[in-house]
User: Fold this.
Amino acid sequence: MNPPDLVADAVVKRFADHVAVDSLSFSVERGSFFSILGPSGCGKTTLLRMIAGFIAPDGGDIAIGGNSMRGVAPNRRPVNMVFQQLALFPMMSVGENVAFGLARRGVSRAERVKRSNAMLERMGLGNAADKRVDELSGGQRQRVAIARSLVLEPTLLLLDEPLGALDLKLREHMKIELKQLQASFGTTFVYITHDQSEALVLSDRVGVMSHGRFEQLGTPQDLYYRPQTPFVAGFVGANNRIAGRMTRADGDIAEITTADGWVVRALKTSPIGMGDAVEAFVRPEVAVLARNESDLPPQHPHHTGQVQSVLFDGANSAVLLQEARTHREFRIALPQTGQFSDLRPQEKVMFSFDPSRAVCFAAP
Amino acid sequence: MPHPRAAIDPRWHGRLTLGLLLAPALLWLGALIILPHIDLAVLSLRERIGPRQYAASLAQYKIFFAEPLYWHVFLRTAVMSVLATLLTLLLAFPIAWIIAKLARGRAGSLLFIICLIPFWVSETVRTLGWMILLRESGVLPALLVKLGITAMPVELLYRDATILVGLVYTSLLFMVVPLVSSLESLDNSLIEAAYDLGAGGFSILRSIVIPHAAPGITAGCIVVFMLTLGNYLTPTLLGGKNSQWFTEQIYTQFITRFNWEQGAAFGFLLLGLSTALVILGLAITGQRFGDVMRRT
Assistant:
């Protein structure tokens, strides 16, 4: 097995009034797509800028390709970055942009042109070399920014929310393109984003970051199906959050009673004491909706609710319910069979969910 | 019966408004710049052949080329002005960089004000201040003697270097302002991207910063060059009789010799010189005047 391309060892960065990156350790395997997912202000940009070399860590060490990067300037690191606003050089043509890094390495003009043209060709921008940067579309600029970095064959490619500035349709398209690019080049990608869908779709592994620490580090499936903290459960994918106290334990399944008396059951992920404050999370697609009680699986607890609104969004359609007794909001994904397409607000419905597919945590 | 206001064609109405708004500027341009220049042009193209008798001739221009002192001073003024412009650029660039890129918030405006403060004092008073510092019995020569660098007080006035110092000092702000505005518009991530792609400091300056700031640099240079070339006070006071500045020659012709025809010809030669050098400068740096003026 190859040694990891990136190893962070207890990396710390403090700013005047807070710790931006708090003793973070992780490693990224060669050729993998690693994402750092977190809300704005969680320290992910600081972390990326430390890997690129623009800011120095206060403690710990970052090693790239097996070499410590302590005291190595950004222009000497085997790392290239795709900036959030792309930062293409407007004073140069597309071809000159791509050849810029090669020129700095003293590659001859003929070789530069050959390699940058080959890279543009591979990116599907074969005839764009002589164009000005502002003549390109958003997606083409994106590809030039990536080409400009990849032509240098870096050990690591860092991407700082590169899709943030694009409109939705193009973003979806570029997401697929990025994944295919990474697969075809085999370069190790480190990608930061606040968009959980980007992180889930693109990555081999994702670190969910909050307040300078990784809440959880794992595959997208781990994060989605086996969240380890309430933060991850709430941040990755849609979830119904139900806070209460544990009133009964039945093996791994805890019975949780909310302050206003609603009783639900969910899987314990860590030891929880009787009477402890608990947060349970139920994914919208885990719950089953029915008009008659007899249509629900008999082995799971049944709940009743009233339709508040129907959120039609094609395949992602959902219904927002109010639990009958407590009027708490509960979101359920609608089956794609169109079975409940005639659902109307105020209608009384039943629902249930498998407690072993819902998770609960001791409240932080 | 139509409404009285409908009688005015709206297009005509708009043109009238525009004309009225432009009127003060056009009047100023016409009465104070174009008319006197036409008069000067006529003056420069005639020769006095007897009392109150004049004939059209190119004699004034011929004298300029025939008399070595005149074109010598002319060339000297041009070279010194170019030199002063380049020195001002070299000095102003780091200052503008600090104000635009390194200083944050209030510190930036404070630095800007520090550059501006000397201009609250009249140019004459400022230049006299330099004279107090630099004359033989002044502050700086006395300090040099005290430090043991020179045995006797040295006269620092009336040297070419002194004139240059004075000119650079006077022009600095006019270079700093366009440079700051063009450097401020440079996206920091471009610098970081270049750094990330392997460029060093000099390479970033050459391939990213200077191309971006080129219109600002050119605008600053044009302004400073024109101010320097047309400056009368600073070379005269700091250079004394040695200054040999062309504006001084013009002054002499008009005021001392009362030879308006010759003075007018000199004026046009100076105008031609500044125009030629600005065009040359733009051609060398591959820029267009309109673009430069729009960016400042």
User: Anything to note?
Assistant: Helices of chain A lie at 44-52, 94-104, 109-122, 138-150, 168-185, 196-202, 220-225, 230-235.
